[in-house]
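Supplementary notes for students who missed Thursday's class. We covered one full example, reproduced here. Read the sequence, then the structure, then the short commentary at the end.
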Amino acid sequence: MLMEETAKKPSGMVAGWHDSHSASAALVDGSGRVLFAAAEERYTKKKLQKGRPHQAMADLAKRFPGMSFPVCYVDMPLGPKITRNLELVTNSLVKGLNSSKNLASLMGIFGKRLVAGQGGGVVGCETDTTASNQELGYQHLVEHHAAHAASAYYCAGFQKAMVVTIDGVGDCLSATVYAGQGSELTQKAKYFYNEIPLGANYETLTGLLGFNPDRHCGKITGLSARGQHHPACVEALNRFFDQSWKRGAKNWFDRLHDEDEQAVLQELRALRQSLLGEFRQEDLAWAIQDTTEQRTLALIAHHAPTDVRHTDICLAGGVFANVRVNQKVKAMGFRNVFVQPAMDDGGLSLGAVLYHLGMERGVPPRRLDHCFLGPSFDEAAMQEAIERRGLSYEKVANIHYAIAQLVERGFVVARFDGAMEFGPRALGNRSILYHTVDPTVNTWLNKRLARTEFMPFAPATLKEKASECYLNMEGCEHTAEFMTITFDCTPEMQRTSPAVVHVDGTARGQLVDARVNPGFHEILREYHKSTGIPSLVNTSFNMHEAPIVATPDDAVASFLDGRLDYLAMGPFLVKSKDATHEKRSDER
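Structure (token representation):
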């Protein structure tokens, strides 16, 4: 069963949604506090789920029953298509709910009819929560990159900042620059996607090297650290892309999204041999990574104020899922760097709401303290899921101590507790944990999880011990809580935690704050007390190509499929029948 809402219902709530890939829904109160955010993929179990976020919106309505709120929407051409899509959403959501008490809430979200608004791009409905007759107001349409920019700026907590967005394409643009001050965001520059094709080219090369262009760009980032600079390789790759973007040419990025993807990928991979076959995939990855870094830094430098040391910068858009790019941005000298945790299109629903609140209601930025914003479940739901699969379990009084002890002994422990994280990273509540001493874990655990990776697992580290592990963190402590940036590792970190240090000496560390996630922090604290090491391997709790687990049933299924040693779900501990060893894995 779902956990009951016990907090007082906030006033002035606004919902947001979008239906491109990584569809999602969000709810924010009138002060800018995020109450709920979740991606549709977690409900449908289909990675990067496209289409209307039926289940995420229905879940939102369940958790805030009887409430009605205006809606902000992203990524829809103006015209009749808007009306038709909103009607479809209303009908399908209402039809899918058995509980009549949620009908008013959903009608408040999507409206009984649509009315044209004023000021361009404002369409739809808004229900006045004080009106007994569900009077109609307006729905607010927000441009793609404006939503990206708002998702970063209004969550960073800065009162003034430079804001940059870069992605593949959104509403014909691939990059924008904004200035944020108080509650206002002002666009300073915009680039069409053929002008700054960084995200598009990165996706194309990902496909050319044999990976899924929508899902596996992160693999190329990891692979690039194993490559070397070969001028001929860089030149050949640039020539390949220049040809693709010539006037009149049909670029590969558009072809991947507009035509039969598999057929286009076959063409690309044939060209890999004929045009670029002399170069190693590691060196091609190095070339695209370097080009992306250099062009991103050049764009930012072109628009940055002269005194970057006293300037804060906020980043969003799919290109800033690239943690090495983010590290290079910080190295430019900015005072503080914040990357929206859901920096990809999954964060657009949240950004749409925040843009509306800031620009139309004057709500100032509010620091996002955490992104545990999805569904959570009570002990009864967890217990039922375990028993449904006929598994033996015990209820442990001090589950955090038990997890720390198991990990120290070399067991792999999956943890499911609290609210689900929003964004692509697992941050402790839907995570697989292991110690950082064994560098071979990147081979054997990835094999168990059916993953192919070129980057080591990421470490979760006690925030108070961060300076012992990472270098040059000043100004990135907040964004590092969301695992969105790499850091150079200290010699001590490289010595004690080789499982999480990449070949270039960096790690994508997550800083764990006791105030934000006391349970996960307690696991790390107990482990540190026993071993002197303040970090653990933290990888997402899911099988390869599947979304991160959302429900107790998901957790049990993924635990069994991944052949993990233990499942710690709330206070319950489930032991795999294969978890028989008593020594650390690296000592066997």
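Commentary. Residues 281-303 form the longest helix (23 residues). The longest strand covers residues 160-170. If anything here is unclear, bring it to office hours.
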